[in-house]
Specification:
This protein is mainly α. The protein has five helices and no strands. The chain has one domain (4-70): lambda repressor-like DNA-binding domains (434 Repressor (Amino-terminal Domain), Orthogonal Bundle), CATH 1.10.260.40. Helix 2 crosses helix 3 (30-37).
Length: 75
């Protein structure tokens, strides 16, 4: 299982982009990319989805009941 931060950092590096270039291409502020890659937890879901959409993914809310039974979510 990849964390969001690991997933974004790994995929960004695979496409050979700096954080600055990646932020520009996704249309988010550089600070957003940095916060995600640092594993910050207080993130705007719309901004996260702009970044994930570059890789064909989106993030959606998961009912807490489902989280308690599984406790992990793969990206």
């Amino acid at each position: 299982m990849n964390s969001l931060s690991d997933f974004v950092k790994t995929r960004r590096k695979e496409v050979n982009l700096t954080q600055e270039e990646f932020a520009e291409r996704t249309g988010v502020a550089l600070t957003v990319v940095r916060k995600i890659e640092q594993g910050k937890t207080n993130l705007n879901m719309d901004k996260v989805n702009l970044i994930l959409s570059m890789f064909g993914h989106t993030l959606a809310a998961v009912p807490s009941k489902k989280l308690k039974s599984n406790n992990t979510i793969d990206l």
